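Complex record, two chains
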Amino acid sequence: MTTRIMQTTARVTVPIVLVLSIWLFLQGHNLPGGGFIGGVLTTTAFVLIYVAYDLEYLESEVLDREVDPGASVYDHRTVTAYRRALILGLAVVLGSGVAGIVVGDPFLTQTYVHLGGIPIYHDIELASALVFDLGVYLVVVGSVLTVVSVVSAE
Amino acid sequence: MAPDLTVVTAIVTLPFVAAVLSPLLHRALGERTGYAGALVAAASFGLLLTQADSYGTVRASWIPALDVGIQFTVDGWGLLFALLASGIGVLVFVYSARYMRGEEGLARYYAALLAFMGSILGVALASDLVLIFLFWELTSVCSFLLIGHHTDDAESRYSARMAMLVTVGGGLCLLAGLLALSVAARGALGGVTFDLTAMLANEEAMRAALRESGLFVPALVLVVVAAAAKSAQVPLHFWLPNAMVAPTPVSAFLHSATMVKVGVYFVGRLRPLLMSPEWVLLVATLGLLTMTVGALLAVISTDIKELLAYSTASHLGLMVAGFGFDVVYGGEAGAFHLLNHALFKAPLFLVAGIVAHEAGSRDLDDLGGLWRDLPVTAVVAGIAALSMAGIPPFNGFYSKELLFEAAYEVAHEAGGLAWLYPAVATVASVFTVVYSLKFLAMFVGERRAPKAEIHRPPVALVAPPAVLAAAAAVVSVSPQLAVDVIVQGAIDATAVGEADLKIGLPTHLTPPVAMSAVAILGGAAAYPFEGRLGAVIERGVDAPVPVRPRGWYDWAVSTAEATSARFGPLVHTGVLRTYLTWVAATGSLLALAGFATTGAALGIDGLGVPTAVAVVLVTALLAALAVPAAPSHLVGVLTLSILGFMISIFFILASAPDLALTQLVVETLVLLIFLLVLQRLPSFYSDVRRFVLARDAGVSVLVGAMAFASVLLTAPAPGADPTDLATYYTEQAVPGGGGANIVNVILVDFRAFDTLGELMVVATAAIAILVLVMMRARGESVADRDADPVFEGDDSS
């Protein structure tokens, strides 16, 4: 699959897909979207890179790091990063739940505020559920990418 | 005055607490743990006595939604049984401390025995059906442990398993019967409840509700089967003699005084609730049949414990028969004999233990003239055995006389075939006398060659049976005293209507007295011909299989073993797709069968589908057909993706943008992952066997049919009002969650806990895959078997 056509397409589409995924994630509370959809779409962007190039490309070309060719996939720094994203996501989810307990509400209680008078946006709604959703996003990205990279390395 | 919940709970939980602590106790006390057990039993006994004059019910909520409670009722019947269990418990623990000296696994033994006593007390005092069931099954589990005490003995294991299968199987019948009762209570008492006290208080309404729902006979039969299994009634009596491989104190405690009486106890408990012509026919017949069969088998036994075991079955039959008769005497016979039987059978077992311990043999043919060596034991055995035979004025006589009166009265009223009742009762009593004399014979007459030097038994072994025999003697001398103190309360609780028991030796000849005379004289006359009698019975027992329930048991168990051994490898292959096939096929079949039994009609003609949706779905269908026909992986993946994208378009058309988006994104991701993996897969499709093809096609059609039917039957009709839940979410999404996207608000606000759970699943799956791959990279394998079962060659692609 690592054809020139594929690689050129990926170069153009991956940034768009990433922006789109973040936009979907942010608008989730009021329009179609949310943590899960955003997470899967971000994963798609990464997998697109894997399909067009290979596992090492992200590391060596995009992030400009040294790749140790002999190291196994588990010591791979991106895979470690994915694992950390997964754990961080779980922590965020649990933390947003525990935050409810701290202020005296039951576990996982969410709330929201409206902020008025902000330039350009005028009125913004801030929902604590967004934090929870961020956790969902991170878990999805972390776990799916861990699986994909580890299995495809086999 | 109502009983105290704390005290009653303490009575039941104390033995369990002690059971948990018994390993520690055993470490601290060693052989003397038995005395600690006796103390615990005595504490329960004493606490029971403090509650003796406070009948009533106490309750603490347990599962409020189903109205299940920790509910205990103290009444005469429960009190009698609980006092027997804890009182005899004291003596058995004292006896055990001496008898079990030097045995192994004592900590386990005492733990099981204590837990067993606790469960019996629980059954006696609990009055919530769920709680009763719980304790009922606990007694079975504990007795399994006790019967199988000698774990390295095959016979011990066999018998323990047999007792477990029979009594726990009966317990399952009990569960079904209790559920039937609680279903009826919904109509009769106006709500879901498992409160037995309330049911007994409204027996008329309960019976009417049971009849109305057609559950009366099923409930009756199920409960009686459960009681019969527990109380060793014919044809489930065979486990009781086998259970005699247990240590003798266990036999005395479980198999004469307590556990086997649980069935009888429960029959007495439900007697006022289920009394009807069907009850009389079933329970009285069952009881008398058991009484006769048990007595016949006892006559041909040569092992003293086996003789006592069959005799126990026979006497349990007597009690069940008593409770079966719908006359006042019947209930009196059952309740009074429960006390009497415990008082004479427990010491007889303990005597058997002494004889086996001191004379080294349990074979009646080896034993004779033991009174010279064991004089105190002989006196105890004399009182108990004469009581067992029902010789006046010993206590067994009074309760047996009550049974005769009940049987006679029922026959007198009903006439015809009902005359069989008194006739059978008399015949069974003749054999009772025969085997009682046979038991006594080992103490009198010539001294036979003993296998070992006969020692004097220590006090700790003789005292417990002596105490029990003394109690039996007191009841014998003054039966009215026992009735006034304890039995009358039990009779009141089990009687249908008013019952006031006056008991004493008969003063003039009545038909029941004549029956007793026939039984005793007949028994005495038949005893000299005991050998010839035994030969006749033997011939009956050796008849072809149908009259041997133990043969049926063995056949059922071995068949089940063979079948599962053959069936197991078929289902449990270790190959994931086999499991998938079985689960999908049976799940779909069960669901379809469920739909079929409800007779729900599929509303196919109401399917109005817009043209756009129809086009999309037909395209999806064509793509689905193309998937298995694909010539290569690439085509297969692409056609599968067409199917997925069509479904996401269908979601858009059905105004579910969130679902559509998810489907779209996931579909894309899956397609990409396939593309990533495809380069490494072999590019050929192997030949597929016809059978596998047909099986897979069948399973997929089945799953499809199930999904189709489920959607049609469970989805609300088009144009129907939104459900309450849907309305709630629509109205609450913006004010409650602050979001206009209801799906997302449900995910993160209303049902965030579910989402959290799903995240855990996703994370666990990722970690599991990581670990599996890592293990393979390190050269480990999950199982030792190194053959890779995936490549069996049947449909590997």
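Note: The longest helix of chain B spans residues 154-188.
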